[in-house]
């Protein structure tokens, strides 16, 4: 997990942490940055808090001011780039929001213009199109993935074909080299040393019949010898042919074995490539899952946009509410207008009261109508008063009507006749009164004089009064007409008021309808919101189902591919097992052929012994004849010796070229005199010989015969063993002589001596001789690995470890140093591990140190044998069952020698290859290996420790301990040092250490968690790796750097 183990941060700690970033030390700054980044990546709110605190601006400033080698340069650069990435992401999100807003606007238009069902179907179709688009993208990704796999398979096939062609070329060259080596060895074996030299040639003339007969017999014997030599040459030729055939068969067998091994290595490489491809498939699956997560996030954004649309609808409803409030304000204004109209109505009521007064006047007129002729004088006055009163009432009513019209004009901005005004019940009552017989009531309104008046009129006055009355009547008629006209106008006014009332009622009803419409829209919006929520839930369910089906489909595809790869791996494993069986059968066949060759050689040796016996018999007969000839010729025996030597030389050297060479050497040595008599010099009881005599005379048979028949106390063997020990242990023996000694059967004789259980001193001498011969002698390793020799030497080492000394263990350590991996594996098959592990209990650390060296080389051979495969160490189970791991741990914890401690740590690290190392072992061992690789200056030691850590990094359970204590920074420094040293004199050593570091980092990335990859990317600068990948001085480092860059893509 990223930032695992960091403390939890609250909002109060942000400012303090930012102060540490700005003003603290480097360690405090790095720690504060890690904590703040952990806090920021939790959610958007935390990110906004960190952004407002100014962390990213401070990080950018520190990045610009820091040096490139400072860790703050990279860390702060990454933090600043995070802010930039978030800004770009926000821009993209804003663009997406704008696009979604446009879609929502279009949806609003559709909602306003169509029914709800149509809008929901449209939104469903839109979501379905989005999902179809995402599914199309997933299908495209799957097609690209399949195309990559096919391309990778084609590349693998091409590499396989090239590798097979190269291996065939290498095999051809190796065959040619083996043939040349065999030819060289065959030519060297043909050059036998000159056994005897002859310096004088004389002709012997024997007088007499007896000497002549002897000479004839000698010639007969010579002919027999020549025939025997001829037969012997034929048999030797046949044997040589058989030997050549067996060598050819052995060479063919070796070639077949090499081919099988090459095929096995090819299969292992194929297995490794398959594992790498499986890792790539897993990474691509992870990428597909990330793509699915991104699709899910986009779907969430779409659902968020739906929520946004609902919010927009709510805002629309609130806007409509505002409109309603505005309308309410207008309604209140209209109510104020209505109040004004109510005031006008009151004035109209006052007008009605005046009209009542007129009605009263009319009643009074009716009451006094009958008395009009009687009271003329008083009537005149009353008519004048009535007229004045009627005129005053009419004038008041007209003024009231004019005021009403002006008020209505001010309120409505137009004439009262065109604007409907609401009325009341009083106006309706007045309408009913106006419908009565008002014309007659208003005919005259003449108040009669008081009846108490006593004045009387004359006829002239009566006539004048009648004229005046007629005149007054006419005037009253005019006034009544005017009143009628005013009543009509008042009626129009009342009609206008009714129209106004109906308009106001219509307006109020419209407002009620508008309220109902608003309520209906609210209900519709709520229903639409519920429908959208239901649609969102249904869409989420469909998407989750579709997502689950896509994931299951992708999982099925990946499972199918994994199944195919597993079948391939099983097939490869079966082929490997068959190859191993074939290899085992080939080895058994090889052992069988070797046993057959040994038996043939033993038979040939026996035949050679038989022939030597026959020759010895012939030689004895020749000696008898020689004695007789010596008697006859009186000491002249050199001729016989010459004949014998010539015969022996022709027998030993059948090749004509060798005969010519020997003749040349005889001519060169002619004139030199080598006496055959011994020159004895007795000094202190010892006998010495001249050097030429020892060099030129074949003492082989003499020494063997003397040792076998004449040396009862075995003095010759002791002297030979002592002489061999003094020469070998003193370093006076050259390497080529050691090679000849190892092939001469010395090891078998020494093993035979050990089998006879000699004294302790003799055993020490034998082990010293073997150690001296094996020193810097790779050719002698194969001779020493003879089962009989190894068995006898291991029997001495495993008898009693308390009696062992360092000289006893040194040959085994020397043997593992100069042996190949196959020879070390052969040593394990001959059960050497239990003996060597048992030696670790010896109290002497030097003895244990040699045993550690032997075990380290054997364990290294096992690691190389399974290199490139995800298998455990082949010898781990044997070590665990024999208690070797506990002994190594004990030795590691208690030794005081740094070299021995390092060797034991390497042994433990390689044994736990591809498996978790226990905590009590991992903590000290891995820590020690990391310290050595970080502090050591010797590139070989550094590379060995890094390779051992690579063996442990094969499993991710060991990654935490490997990555602890800033070890990744040490690896990054190795890479940066190598990058900086390009073109310099010391770049070779630095490049080798950087190569080992890159191998370890690549394995940590491939087998580790995402947090491990992130930590590596944080400390390793890509520019240094690019520099190593682009250089051409060391192609191995360049290839490894390119692999590292590919893993980080």
Automatic annotation (TrEMBL):
Pfam families xrefs: Arm
Comp. bias intervals (Polar residues): 439-465
Residue ranges that the Swiss-Prot or TrEMBL entry lists as coiled coil: 90-117, 156-371, 469-603, 652-679
Domain of life of the source: Eukaryota
InterPro entries: ARM-like, ARM-type_fold, Armadillo
Annotated spans, Disordered: 420-465
Protein name per Swiss-Prot or TrEMBL: Uncharacterized protein
Keywords: Coiled coil
């Amino acid at each position: 997990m990223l930032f695992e183990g960091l403390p939890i941060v609250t909002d109060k700690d942000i400012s303090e942490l930012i102060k540490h970033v700005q003003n603290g030390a480097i360690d405090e700054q790095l720690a504060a940055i890690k904590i703040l980044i952990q806090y920021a990546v939790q959610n958007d709110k935390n990110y906004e808090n960190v952004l407002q605190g100014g962390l990213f601006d401070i990080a950018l400033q520190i990045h610009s001011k820091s040096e490139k080698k400072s860790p703050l340069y990279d860390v702060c650069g990454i933090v600043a780039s995070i802010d930039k990435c978030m800004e770009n992401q926000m821009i993209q999100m804003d663009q997406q929001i704008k696009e979604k807003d446009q879609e929502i606007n279009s949806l609003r238009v559709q909602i306003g213009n169509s029914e709800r069902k149509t809008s929901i179907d449209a939104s469903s179709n839109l979501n379905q199109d989005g999902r179809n688009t995402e599914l199309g993208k997933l299908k495209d990704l799957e097609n690209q993935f399949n195309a990559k796999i096919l391309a990778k398979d084609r590349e693998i096939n091409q590499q396989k074909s090239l590798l097979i062609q190269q291996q065939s070329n290498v095999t051809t060259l190796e065959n040619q080299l083996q043939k040349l080596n065999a030819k060289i060895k065959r030519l060297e074996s043909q050059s036998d040393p000159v056994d005897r030299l002859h310096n004088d040639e004389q002709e012997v003339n024997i007088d007499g019949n007896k000497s002549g007969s002897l000479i004839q017999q000698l010639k007969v014997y010579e002919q027999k010898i020549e025939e025997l030599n001829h037969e012997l040459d034929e048999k030797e030729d046949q044997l040589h042919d058989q030997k050549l055939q067996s060598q050819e068969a052995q060479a063919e067998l070796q070639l077949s074995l090499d081919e099988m091994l090459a095929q096995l290595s090819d299969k292992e490489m194929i297995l490794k490539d398959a594992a790498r491809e499986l890792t790539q498939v897993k990474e691509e699956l992870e990428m597909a899952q990330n793509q699915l997560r991104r699709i899910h996030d986009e779907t969430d954004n779409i659902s968020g946009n739906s929520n946004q649309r609902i919010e927009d609808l709510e805002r629309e409803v609130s806007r409509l509410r505002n409109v309603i409030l505005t309308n309410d304000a207008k309604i209140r204004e209209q109510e104020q207008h209505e109040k004004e109209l109510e005031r006008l109505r009151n004035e109209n009521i006052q007008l009605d009261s005046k009209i009542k007064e007129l009605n009263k006047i009319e009643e009074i007129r009716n009451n006094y109508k009958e008395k009009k002729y009687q009271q003329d004088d008083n009537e005149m006055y009353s008519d004048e008063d009535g007229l004045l009163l009627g005129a005053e009432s009419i004038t008041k009513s007209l003024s009231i009507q004019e005021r009403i019209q002006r008020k209505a004009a001010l309120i409505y901005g137009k004439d009262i006749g065109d604007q409907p005004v609401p009325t009341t019940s009083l106006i309706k009552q007045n309408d009913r009164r106006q419908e009565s017989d008002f014309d007659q009531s208003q005919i005259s309104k003449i108040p009669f004089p008081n009846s108490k008046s006593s004045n009387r009129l004359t006829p002239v006055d009566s006539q004048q009064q009648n004229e005046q009355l007629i005149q007054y009547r006419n005037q009253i008629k005019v006034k009544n007409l005017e009143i009628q006209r005013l009543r009509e106008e008042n009626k129009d006014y009342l009609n206008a008021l009714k129209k106004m009332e109906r308009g106001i009622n219509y307006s109020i009803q419209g407002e009620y309808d508008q309220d109902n419409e608003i309520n209906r829209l609210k209900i519709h919006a709520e229903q639409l919101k519920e429908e959208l929520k239901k649609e969102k839930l249904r869409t989420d369910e469909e998407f989750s189902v579709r997502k689950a089906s896509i994931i299951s489909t992708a999982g099925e595809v990946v499972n199918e591919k994994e199944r195919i790869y597993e079948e391939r791996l099983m097939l490869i494993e079966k082929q490997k097992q068959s190859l191993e069986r074939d290899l085992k059968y080939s080895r058994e066949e090889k052992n069988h052929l070797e046993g057959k060759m040994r038996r043939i050689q033993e038979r040939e040796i026996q035949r050679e012994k038989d022939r030597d016996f026959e020759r010895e018999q012939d030689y004895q007969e020749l000696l008898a004849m020689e004695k007789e000839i010596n008697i006859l010729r009186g000491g002249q025996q050199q001729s016989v010796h010459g004949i014998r030597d010539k015969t022996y030389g022709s027998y030993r050297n059948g090749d004509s070229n060798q005969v010519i060479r020997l003749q040349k050497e005889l001519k060169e040595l002619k004139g030199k005199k080598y006496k055959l008599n011994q020159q004895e010099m007795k000094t202190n009881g010892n006998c010495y010989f001249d050097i030429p005599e020892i060099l030129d005379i074949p003492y082989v048979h003499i020494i063997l015969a003397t040792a076998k028949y004449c040396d009862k106390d075995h003095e010759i063997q002791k002297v030979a063993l002592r002489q061999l020990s003094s020469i070998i242990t003193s370093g006076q023996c050259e390497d080529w002589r050691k090679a000849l000694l190892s092939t001469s059967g010395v090891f078998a004789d020494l093993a035979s001596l050990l089998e006879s259980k000699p004294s302790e001193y003799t055993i020490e001498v034998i082990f010293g001789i073997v150690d001296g011969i094996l020193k810097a002698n790779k050719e002698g390793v194969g001779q020493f690995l003879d089962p009989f020799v190894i068995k006898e030497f291991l029997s001495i080492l495993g008898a009693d470890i308390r009696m062992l000394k360092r000289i006893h263990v040194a040959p085994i350590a020397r043997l593992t140093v100069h042996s190949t991996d196959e020879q070390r594996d052969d040593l394990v098959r001959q059960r050497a591990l239990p003996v060597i592990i048992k030696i670790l209990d010896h109290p002497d650390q030097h003895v244990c140190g040699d045993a550690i060296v032997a075990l380290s080389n054997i364990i290294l051979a096992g690691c190389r044998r399974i290199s490139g495969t995800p298998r455990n160490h082949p010898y781990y189970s044997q070590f665990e069952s024999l208690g070797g791991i506990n002994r190594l741990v004990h030795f590691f914890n208690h030794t005081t020698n740094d070299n021995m401690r390092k060797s034991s740590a390497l042994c433990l690290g390689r044994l736990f290859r591809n498996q978790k190392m226990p905590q009590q072992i991992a903590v000290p061992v891995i820590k020690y290996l990391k310290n050595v690789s970080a502090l050591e200056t010797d590139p070989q030691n550094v590379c060995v420790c890094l390779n051992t850590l690579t063996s442990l990094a094969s499993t991710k359970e060991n990654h935490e301990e490997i990555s602890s204590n800033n070890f990744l920074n040490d690896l990054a420094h190795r890479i940066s040092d190598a990058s900086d040293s390009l073109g310099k004199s010391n770049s070779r050593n630095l490049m080798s250490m950087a190569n080992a570091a890159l191998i370890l980092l690549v394995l940590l990335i491939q087998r580790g968690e995402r947090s491990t990859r992130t930590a590596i990317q944080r400390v390793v600068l890509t520019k240094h790796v690019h520099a190593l990948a682009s250089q051409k001085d060391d192609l191995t480092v360049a290839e490894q750097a390119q692999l590292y860059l590919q893993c980080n893509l």
